[in-house]
Amino acid sequence: MAALRVFSRNLPYLRQQFSALLGNTSPSVKFICVVVIIGYILSFSDDVVDVLSVTPGYLLPPSFQLWSTFTFWFLEIHLWEVIIDIVTVGLCGKLIEPLWGQMEMMKFFFLTNVGVAFLTTFYYLVIFACTGQTSYLFDIHVHGLAGYLAAVSVAVKQIMPDHLLIKTPLGKLTNRSMPLLILIAAIILWAIGALEGTYPCMWGSGTILSWIYLRFWQRHSSGTRGDMADNFSFDNFFPTVLQPVVRGILGPPHRCLVRLGICSPSPRRVHLALSPRGVTISMPGVEPQDMERRRQIALKALSERLSKTSEQTRQKNLSTKVNMDAVRKVQSQVIPQFPSETATSSQAAAAPPEATLVDLTDPVPPTTKQS
């Protein structure tokens, strides 16, 4: 009851924040948010959860319930998951949709969710083959937008890889490390029983599928496909120490897929072109709008750093001035101030001397006392 009273007290503030978040967004973003709220209301019925969620055993033949791959994503059973979904979709509409367009964003949404349903089912099929327990096929219900949240984190990493989120004693936390960090946190929470086992499976599936789509298949306005930039390679998701190991493991499969024509090779050429404004450098896999956006982000970060440095310098100079004034005040109280020679001479010139003239030639007449 106390939690309900706190929620009702903060309801106007939350409504204001959500309206500001979803304001000026496309109808598709608002539609996703409304459907997620309706799915949370329907999740209180166990029969609805069984029907709308993806059950690995029923998605496979002979049941083959393919329609569940289009309904599982809006079914959330926890309120905090609904809030995270709405906030993520709203931020996606503010950040990604203006760059990609509404159609590309919805295409990314549906491809990611459908792929997460099949890849998560494949995970549980492998676990069933290793353990022989049928509970992994018929007692597991895959639902929610965890896979799409992972896909959004990968897209944000592609757009703003070096954007600083928070500084920690262990180092700086940027968008580059968010997908792997959240996956590790989800595995830890599942191990202690605070999270369902489907969440890390869906997050890992969404991370892999979204990276494959953005890396090799996404079509850009210039007619090119994918993003073959070096800072968006798969080993870049891992710490620097593990990157050579990951690169050595994934190198042979990538070369096989390139020979089969499924994946494109990683180009290493840099194109130089002369223009009236100077030399233009075109790097493979980097769109001109991406370069301009990253340049603006770098200029903004540089401006903030310079303003911070100037503010620190001003504060330091101000504190030095205050300290010097305090030292002079203390010295004036301890050491007596003597007038200078100039002040003494000026005072002597200002005050005329008083002199008495005495005539020494005339004797002083004696004084007589008369009675």
From TrEMBL:
Chain spans, region Disordered: 337-371
Annotated organism of origin: Spodoptera exigua
Location within or outside the cell: Membrane
Record's keyword terms, sorted: Membrane, Transmembrane, Transmembrane helix
Major localization class: membrane
Biased composition (Low complexity): 339-356
Membrane topology, as annotated: Multi-pass membrane protein
Name assigned to this protein: Transmembrane protein 115
UniProt superkingdom: Eukaryota
GO biological process, one term: retrograde vesicle-mediated transport, Golgi to endoplasmic reticulum
GO cellular component: Golgi apparatus; membrane
Residues spanning the membrane: 21-42, 77-96, 108-129, 135-156, 177-195
